[in-house]
Amino acid sequence: CNCSKCIKCVKSSSTSSSCAFTYKSVTSPCFLGVLAQENLPGDQFARGSSYIAASYVKYLEGAGARVVPIRINRTEEEYVNIFYSINGIKMALHLTYLNPLNVNPRSPLQANDAGDYFPIWGTCQGFQQLSVLTANKNLLTLTDTKAVALPLTLTPAAQSSRLFRSFPKDLLQSLAEENITSNFHSWSLSLQNYSRNAKLKRFYKILSTNNDGKKEFISTMEAYRYPFYAVQWHPEKSPFEWIDKPGMVHSSSAVRASFYTASFFISEAMKNHHHFSSPLEEERALIYNFSPVFRGIHAVFVQNYYFD
């Protein structure tokens, strides 16, 4: 089968020219999966076992994607089905949570090697997990980067990178000169640890770094051969989160940066032909089946989606 998503064909290695997975939505060509994670301890609003911050959903929807929640503790068949129905994955996971896509017969890495262009975007803890999975060890180090807004120190590779080369020059200048990237992390991948690990150096190109005053750490990177992207900062917070804390920035430049990163990721995701098998399957999978819970305008996350 020439279809890139047919689960039956993937499992059976069928060479048939016919495929049951023929439905393609004409109203929304891009479906992005967002990985849920276990509920935070002490979350008085928590329902079920896992959540997705609504700002991650709005971030992608605001640039033209439809969002599919990838819930924890699903079956292997369900994860396979989701993988071949969506066009890309956004990660923002805690390191203790196992990436469910690891159970798939074809991981995103293997899919790309086979010519199936499948992008991944990691934000904050998603950045950290991608580094751990690539290095096959935890090389993260503590940094003083909790609730601080920083400019990016762009590397020479940034302007020619896939991620940044389509950004307007004035926006790149703002990213480099203004404190508009929101950082809310205690752990970082230091430039020193990256440089000492051959696997990371071969896999990821550094696009920007930052410094907490003591340690230089990587803040943006993209894979050389794969459509994998990672930012240690939070582009989604500027337009969609409102907690009154240092590090929160709502300037027009910060909001533009949010849109351009999301728009870029969607343009990458539209390069594959994964799709749902039917309109009914599509409708059942979408985030619209769940209602966000308002947690307070000054909560860490204004709204969360909760899942059983």
UniProtKB/TrEMBL annotation:
It is an enzyme of class 3 (hydrolase). Pfam families: Peptidase_C26. GO terms for molecular function: gamma-glutamyl-peptidase activity. Its EC number is 3.4.19.9. SUPFAM superfamilies: Class I glutamine amidotransferase-like. The keyword Secreted applies. Its main location: secreted. It is found in: Secreted, Extracellular space. The active site is at 124 (nucleophile), 234, 234 (proton donor). InterPro entries: Class_I_gatase-like (IPR029062), Pept_C26_g-glut_hydrolase (IPR015527), Peptidase_C26 (IPR011697). It catalyses: (6S)-5,6,7,8-tetrahydrofolyl-(gamma-L-Glu)(n) + (n-1) H2O = (6S)-5,6,7,8-tetrahydrofolate + (n-1) L-glutamate. Gene3D superfamilies: 3.40.50.880. PROSITE patterns: GATASE_TYPE_1, PEPTIDASE_C26_GGH. GO terms for biological process: tetrahydrofolylpolyglutamate metabolic process. Keywords: Hydrolase, Secreted, Signal. GO terms for cellular component: extracellular region; vacuole. Belongs to the peptidase C26 family. PANTHER family: FOLATE GAMMA-GLUTAMYL HYDROLASE (PTHR11315:SF10), PROTEASE FAMILY C26 GAMMA-GLUTAMYL HYDROLASE (PTHR11315). This is folate gamma-glutamyl hydrolase. The gene is zgc:171566.
